[in-house]
Amino acid sequence: MKTYQQFINGALVPARPNQEWIEVENPYTGQIVSRVPKGDDADALAALDAAKKAQPAWAAKSAPERAGFLKRFAALIREHRVELAKILVEEQAKILPLAQVEIDFTADYFDYYAGWARVYEGEIINSDDPNENIFLFRQPIGVVAGICPWNFPFFVMARKVAPALLTGCTIVVKPSSNTPNTTFAFANLVAQHVADLPKGVLNIVSGAGRTLGNTLVSSPLTDMVTLTGSVEAGQEIIRASAANVTKVSLELGGKAPALVFPDADLDLAVTSIVNSRVIFSGQVCNCAERAYVHKSVFDEFVAKFTAAMKAVPFGDPFGEGIVYSSQIDRVQQERIDALVGRAKAAGGEIVTGGKKAVCPKNGTGYFYEPTVILGAKQDSEIVQKETFGPIIPVLPFSDYDEAIALANDSDFGLTSSVYTKNVSTTLRAIKDLKFGETYVNRHNFEGMQGFHAGWRKSGIGGADGKHGMLEYLQTHVAYVKM
User: Fold this and answer.
1) Which of the residues 169, 285, 287, 359 is marked catalytic?
2) The architecture CATH gives domain 256-447
3) Do 237 and 247 contact (CB within 8 A), yes or no?
4) Where in the chain is the domain with CATH 3.40.605.10?
5) Which residue of 89, 114, 162, 334 has the fewest CB atoms within a 10 Å radius of its CB?
6) What is the pLDDT of residues 449-460, one digit of tens each?
7) Structure pTM?
8) Cα separation of 429 and 293, whole Å?
9) pLDDT tens readout for residues 45-99
10) Of these residues, 90, 251, 369, 437, which one is catalytic?
11) Domain with residues 2-252+458-481, CATH architecture
12) What is the pLDDT of residues 409-448, one digit of tens each?
């Protein structure tokens, strides 16, 4: 069993004599594969103090010099890409091909933000006075606390670290207690191979959210908190950071609608929505959670969609041809099963799936069958609440206005998708859908050069691209009289 250490002020920290530990379970096998420190307030404050002391000197370096470290991170990840992907599979039962995509995409992400070093800039603003210049400078916000989720732990770590370090911020990363291994493996690689990274610039600490996490968020040493997680976690962070008026950037839950119009390519829609629903066992916040299909093609769509969902193979995450594996833990499996049970009790028809599953190979893991539900009401729990599992309700609509109204009827506003061959329908839907992202005739997955941001309870601020980088910068305007 692997034992990891906190990474604070440029060094791996030896365990204390009375150290408490978090045991990390492989969801597929049920075995404990590692342990990480159950950090406390002292660990959080040590990391924040190191980041605070390191930040001025880090910000004083040129952006290209800071970007050089991001490039080295990218190269280091690529050199160890296979090893890191296997660690990721073991700690969360993500299928190997998807785990490898996450590792490779993370390396590309560091390179992408390194490319912004000579691109991001301030502004010169016209003054009312002809003898005055107005300059807008962009300065690093300071010390960042990055709280990462368990579903894409390695990529989201980079999503926070890359723009923070590029812009001159320093950062303390807290990985999820469910999936800390890949992030700590990266910390070990940095400690071994990037020893000249200034101490305190990057810190990685583990611990419970209500202790170590709360200290990271509520400390006056923290200038910004960036979280990817649940609505409840986001609300707690807003409350905890309020006393210091700390900036927050939050990517929270989603309940993405998929709209299938009568002229849609049904085979494309079926394939895209199935892929968007079952990727990583349905545990992806931006993928399709509810489908609305025009009544003229509803029966045909349902028949094709049900057959496709029923045929999705699941099992060993290292297995050949497997599309998804175990849920992250038993709690998540039980939660999904309870949601489906309540949907059925409320009048929903389970046309395929609808129950826990046993792994076809050896009976281990927290599996749930790919599930399609008909007859759910718009105001029902299964339509309104995020499920985070391979289950999806399908509802009919009569016309464009009804489709848009049903899609927008949600507390969430992260992503949405549209299937149509009509350009006018596409452009109208993009205008009328109240979501941070809309995917048209394709799967639900964002690009690093876009801006991943939610409306309503799906978040504040966002990540990726130019606008994601600007989250880590604050403005300083100077009025210069000649």
Assistant:
1) 285
2) 3-Layer(aba) Sandwich (3.40)
3) no
4) 2-252+458-481
5) 334
6) 888 888 898 889
7) 0.91
8) 14
9) 999 999 999 999 999 999 999 999 999 999 999 999 999 999 999 999 999 999 9
10) 251
11) 3-Layer(aba) Sandwich (3.40)
12) 999 999 999 999 999 999 999 999 999 999 999 888 888 8
